[in-house]
Design brief:
2 domains, Ribosomal Protein L22, Chain A, about 30% helix, 3-stranded antiparallel β-sheet, about 250 residues, alpha+beta
Length: about 250
Amino acid sequence: MANKLELILHQNNYTLDPSTIHIWHIDLQLTDNDFHRLQDYLNPEEQQRLQRYTHQRAQQQFLATRGRLKQLLAGYTGIAPSDIQFETGQYGKPRLADTTIDDGLVFNVSHSGVMALIAISTNCALGIDIERINTRHNLQGMAQRCFSNQELSSWNQLTEPHKTTQFYEYWCAKEAFLKATGRGLALGMEHCVVDIEQPCFISLPESYQSSDWQLQCVDVGNNYRAFVAGNGDSVSIINKQFHQTSSSS
């Protein structure tokens, strides 16, 4: 899979080739001008949701991810950002309004710390997850609940700091698949078995076939880990750094 980083200025049109996933790296720290500009893209329901967040950090996270998502989708669809609307599937996974699940232009969003990732592709089930690496006291307990026996045995042989880092790699890889299906944790993280080194899925829950799915690590620096998952043919991954020009609207 190709994996390169491009600096892309906000513009009016983006080209997405078949069997390609664009992964946009978004800075969640907004200037005052950005905050007011992105607010203009929100519909009344989204405005109300924004106001329900009592902490400024949570407001910025929501506004940056939702506003930038609308800006980006506008570039792919030609629809004005304020006119981009969403609907959700049976299990709550969002998609563009008036579209079929996993058909046409698809996207998935994840954020952690001060960074968000927005994955955009076509005609596939798509999921992405990013996590900031934190030293937590309960990683062992979480691993016992969320890892397969095979994964847990391998993970327990590691020493720090590799043990903490690989916990987040397993977590993000599993979460990317669960988000792609739209069914989330209900499928059971422990039933999603991952080979981190390849990377690939060894086995998946229910009727999902590991051979139908692609898994790719996303380079997000030393303090974060991220993976993207999708079904269908082999894909190329193109990482894009969103940069808002002062003249863009």
